[in-house]
Amino acid sequence: MERKRIAIIGVGLIGGSLAIRLHEKKISSRLIGVDASKENEAKALELELVDEILPLDEAIAQSDVIVLAFPVDKMVSLLPSILDKIENQIVIDLGSTKSQLTEAVGNHPKRGRYVATHPMWGTEYSGPAAAVRNAYENKAVIICDEGDSDLDALEWTKAMYKKIGMHLLNMEAKAHDLHAAYVSHISHITSFALANTVLQKEKEDNAIFEMASAGFESTVRLAKSNPAMWVPIFIQNKENVLDVLNEHIEQLKKFRDKIEESNEQELRGLIEHANNIKRIIK
C-alpha cells in the first residue's frame, strides 16, 4: 500500500502503540504527533514514536491521514471541526463509543472522508511511555457504518488495519455500542467497583499486597485505567452501560442470595452455567 503522511492526534497508549506499527510496517512516510499535553508530545518525540510535533492545524494541512486517539468526549466536539479543515484527507478515529460521534457528523459535507473504527485493544496504562510493540496483532477492529465512508478512505483504512495484523468486523454504530458495553465497558466498571470494595474493607495495604493472588490481580488490573478515558465512555454509552450494569447487579444478587441461604445446589448451578463461557473464550 502507498505510504502516507499520517498525523496522530493523541500520542498516548493507543495512538503511540499504533505509531510503532505504522513505522514498522512502512505504512507511514512521516508521522506527525499532536497532543493536548506538552509532556506527552515531548515523550513521544523522545521515544521516536513520531517524527515531529506540530500544532493541530498544521498537522492537518501536512497530512494525508489523520488519526484521532484521544477521549471520546473531546472527539464529539473536535471531529466536525477537523472535517471542516480537510481537503481530501482520510480521518480515522479509534474511540470506544460510536453512536454520538457518527451522529455528530452525519450531515457533514465531508462525512465520506471519515471512517469510524474501534481497535479492540488496550491496557490499564496510559501515556506515550506505555505504548506497546505488536499491540494490535491478532486483535479485532470494528469498522462502523461502512456505507457512510468514501470507498477509497474505507479501503485504505481496511488495508492499514490488515497490515498491522488485525482482523476486521463490520457493525452499525448503535450495535457496536451495545456489544461494547457487554464485552468491554462492564469489565472496567466491575474492576473499578471491586477495587473500591477491597480498598474500603481491607484497610491494611500490606495485606492486600501480600495476599493478592494472580486471580485477584487479573480481575482488578483494569481498575488502574485512566478516568479521563473511561468517564466519557460510560457517559456517552450510558443507556447500554446501565442495561448491562443492572443485569450484572441482578446476577450478583443471585450469588448473594444462594450463599446466604447456604443453597449449595443452586450455587453450583450458577457457577456451572458461568462455566459455559469457555465455549467462547478459551
TrEMBL record:
GO terms for biological process: tyrosine biosynthetic process. It comes from the Bacteria. SUPFAM superfamilies: 6-phosphogluconate dehydrogenase C-terminal domain-like, NAD(P)-binding Rossmann-fold domains. Transmembrane segments: none annotated. Residues 4-282 form the Prephenate/arogenate dehydrogenase domain. NCBIfam families: PRK08507.1. PROSITE patterns: PDH_ADH (PS51176). PANTHER family: PREPHENATE DEHYDROGENASE, PREPHENATE DEHYDROGENASE [NADP(+)]. It comes from Lacibacter cauensis. Pfam families: PDH_C, PDH_N. The keyword Cell wall biogenesis/degradation does not apply. Residues 235-265 form a coiled coil. One of its GO terms (molecular function) is prephenate dehydrogenase (NADP+) activity. Keywords: Coiled coil, Oxidoreductase. This is Prephenate dehydrogenase.
